[in-house]
Write a structure and sequence with these properties.
The protein is mainly alpha-helical and 75 residues long. Helix 1 (3-31) packs antiparallel against helix 3. It has helices spanning 3-31, 37-42, 46-74. It contains 3 helices and no strands.
Length: 75
């Protein structure tokens, strides 16, 4: 494995990690909404959660795509 391949895989793993963390954060915020209902509703409520989870999901998929691309270009 060359340095370029390792760099692509490492960057992809980092993107997957950040994407998964963003999805977990969106879900945790949604679960705590009962405690902060007024603030949660004023800041966008479920729309904010969906957008955050969607963007994090795209980052996760992009990271997986980068890993696959690095492995495919290896051959």
């Amino acid at each position: 494995m060359s340095g370029q391949e390792a760099g692509g895989i490492g960057l992809g793993l980092f993107a997957v990690l950040i994407g998964a963390g963003g999805i977990v954060a969106a879900i945790r915020t949604r679960r705590r909404r009962a405690e902060i209902a007024a603030t949660y509703g004023a800041t966008g409520g479920i729309v904010y959660t969906v957008v955050q989870a969607g963007c994090s999901g795209l980052l996760l998929v992009g990271g997986l795509g980068l890993i696959v691309l690095a492995l495919v270009l290896k051959r």
